[in-house]
Write a structure and sequence with these properties.
Elements (H helix, E strand, L loop, with lengths): L6 H19 L5 H14 L2 H10 L3 H13 L6 H9 L3 H15 L3 H8 L2 H11 L12 H14 L7 H8 L4 H15 L3 H8 L2 H27 L4 H10 L5 H12 L3 H8 L2 H11 L4
Helix pairs in contact: 1-17, 3-14, 3-17, 4-5, 4-6, 5-13, 7-8, 8-10, 8-13, 9-10, 9-11, 10-13, 12-13, 13-15, 16-17
The protein binds calcium ion (CA).
Family: Belongs to the annexin family.
Protein name: Annexin
Keywords: Annexin, Calcium, Calcium/phospholipid-binding, Repeat
Length: 288
């Protein structure tokens, strides 16, 4: 086993994983410690464990940039991974990610998104990247809710659905407002929004709108479903476990248990082995 020589070192890293993470993210860590740890990880470990621990060493904006780059690099595009990162971050976080992406790869995120996607899906992706929460005052704007519900509904009543109002409304309001809008739309249409989107849109745009709506309605549930269906894909599991470890992982655990009747902790114990299992369990923190 390639990481045997670093077995003890690894045990230490696994125990201090959560600590390293908090530490890196308050950005107190002197660059020389970061450099030393990175070098030790690269030398003493390999494979999935190494990738996981290197991911933990990145700041959140750099890790998200890394995931976006991975989803676009090479042949084709991983639209689901792309949407997962973009839809689960706030406007301020998306601005930081855009800057980090430029620093890390000397490339413009917006240009890469344009060249890796097409047509209406490109418009949606760019609108999410630049999303604004124009009504974040905390007050419920009933008039605007009515207007938005009407626009979304009318856009899918004609022969050919019009994606423009969907893209515009879903990327320019606060999430509380949008939750109300989508719930009202469901009452009006007597069906889940997900079904409305599936029956009126197609291709990447359909996938994109579904993920956007799902993350607005219940972000932890969307992430729990994604974990559940991608348990065998290391990159997805690592992305969610590391990317959400500071914000929503507790809520993801709650939704995961409701969804599958098995806790995320027990699922990791069942589906992973060895040091990778230990590292993921350390990130998961506890049994539910
Ligand atoms: Ca590509």
């Amino acid at each position: 086993m390639p990481f045997r020589c670093g077995g003890e070192l690894l045990g230490l890293y696994v125990r201090i994983c959560p600590l390293i993470h908090i530490w890196m993210h308050v950005r107190f860590t002197p660059p020389w410690i970061r450099k030393d740890l990175n070098a030790a990880l690269k030398k003493g470990l390999s494979g999935a464990v190494q990738e996981l621990l290197l991911a933990l060493m990145m700041t959140p904006d750099r890790f998200d940039s890394h995931r976006l780059r991975q989803s676009m690099e090479g042949v084709g595009t991983d639209e689901e991974a792309l949407m997962e990162v973009l839809c689960t971050r706030s406007p301020a976080q998306l601005r930081d990610i855009t800057i980090a992406y430029r620093e890390m790869y000397n490339r413009y995120l917006e240009n890469d998104l344009i060249s890796e996607t097409s047509k209406e899906f490109t418009k949606l992706v760019l609108a999410i990247l630049k999303k604004e929460e124009r009504n974040a005052s905390g007050k419920i704007d009933f008039e605007l809710i009515d207007q938005d519900v009407k626009e979304l509904s009318e856009a899918v009543t004609g022969k050919k659905a019009n994606p423009e109002p969907w893209t515009q409304v879903l990327t320019s309001r606060s999430s509380d407002h949008l939750k109300r809008v989508l719930s009202r739309l469901e009452d009006l249409k007597c069906e889940p929004v997900d079904k409305t989107i599936q029956s009126h849109f197609s291709g990447d745009l359909r996938l994109g709108l579904r993920i956007l709506a799902q993350t607005i309605q219940n972000k932890p549930l969307f992430l729990a479903q994604r974990l559940h269906s991608c348990m065998k894909k290391n990159a997805v599991v690592r992305g969610i476990m590391v990317g959400q470890s500071e914000e929503d992982l507790l809520w993801v655990r709650v939704e995961f248990l409701k969804l599958t009747n098995l806790s995320l902790y027990s699922t990791i114990q069942k589906d992973f082995k060895g040091e990778l299992q230990l590292a993921l369990l350390a990130l998961c923190r506890s049994e539910d």
